[in-house]
Amino acid sequence: MSTTQDISSTTESAHEDPTVRALITRQAVDAGNDVYLVAPESNQTLTYAQLLQRAREIAGHLDTLGLGKGDTVSLMLGNGAATAELILGVMYAGCVCAPLNTAAGAAQLGYVLDHSRASVVFVSPEFEALLADALEIAGREVRIIVTDVDRGPDWPAHDTTDSALPTLTQNDDAMLMYTSGTTGKPKGVLLTHANVLSGARNVAGAHALRKEDCGLCVLPLCHINAQIVSLLGILVSGGTMVLPHGFSVRRFWGWVTDHRCTWFSVVPTIIAYLLHEHTELDTRTRTALQAVRFGRSASAPLPPALHEQFESRFGIPIVETMGITEAAAQILTNPLPPAPCRIGSPGLPYGNEVIIANGEGIEIGPNNQGEILVRGPNVMRAYLRDPQATAAAIDSGGWLRTGDLGHKDDDGFVFVTGRLKELIIKGGENISPREIDDALFSHPAVVEAGALGVPDDDLGEDVAACVVVRDDMPVDEQELIEHCRKLTGGFKAPRTILFMHELPKGPTGKVLRHELAKFFTGNDAETPTKT
After folding, report:
1. Residues 39-56: tens digit of each pLDDT
2. pTM here?
3. Is residue 402 a part of any domain in this protein?
4. Domain with 518 in it: what CATH number?
């Protein structure tokens, strides 16, 4: 069989609009009265015609502020209707949208604000103090516009009706996203209009999104997943997006039911919390769930035990995928039911090429481990003002190194085995933290898990792990270690397991292993153990 899914199945509405501006304009013409966005907390709705109007107003305001084509506009905002409008409106105007992750801390935000040369920052009131600290570190001044995520910015009063729009092409930059910077300074990923729209079309095509679909987005809009998969993927398909302020385990199924959602986009941590929620669903909710076509999981590997338990309990197919910022989110996805999928695999390429390569960048055969490489129109233009990093990431043939290790099976499904930089090297043997995570997640008491390597005088490194467990299911360290021994063997089983209230995670719920290492310094008094 082919190792790349057929991209001719892309939805009929996903025409080749060259820019985000062209896409917004066309959808306003084709489906002006259809609802694009619903904000549950504020009871706001936004039609496609209203979206075009808001985008024009935002472009006019930016022009009045003196911003032109290619200028960087940053956002320090939570989720809300106004946040979605600003992200799309900034790109519509021809400026470069640079959403910031407020969990990054003042030092990293200061670096990003300086490196990006942002001209304007839209900030929620709750992040004004953080922004002030970041700008002090950056040592530069920017225009600050306080913004309510529901009601919008506190704009200066100007007439923007006659503002001219610059000419845009698909090769113009649309978005600037910064990597997490866990091993050094974060890098600025420059994505063109062609890149972000290719990523959105890949999502819409792979998941057969239609104008009749309604997708629930509970992931933060400061992350590439929510921006491409939900914001732009739904815009491409002409469907509706339900956008709460954030994830809530108590309200999740109510949003699905009340708004008749047909799909949702989440991460493994959310799947775990929904699965371990004690409250049983009522008959109305159970009936509503029959209309949900699929749930989409990305941003971190989904442990097979969670995958199978979720589908068994809720009767909703989970489609595991894989994406990276440098490739405008999705690069792999499992097919939709009833096509065969692979539990434990993020699937097949769709809309781009993916190979497994050796250290020289040469493709290797099935069932051999190597680095995952991707090539396609969704791959970034460059890292901002960093030609060396760009050259190291993208080879002369256009292949982007992901830094992820994996292999393909005989049918072309990719299996991710870990990160090059996260491998645990114990006594000269490579151990993937992912394998230990999966073993821990297969225990019914475990809600969150993260394995890592810790220093060892004899072996170089040994295996350790941090977990969060259910309150109603007591379990001790030795029981979990023995559980892992049965599944992974004694050599790979953790030597130590810490019990915690919550694991440190990024904005989409991915466990930050480098943060876990801080809890293995020998100072047990500072370890946040679960009681």
Report:
1. 999 999 999 999 999 999
2. 0.88
3. no
4. 3.30.300.30
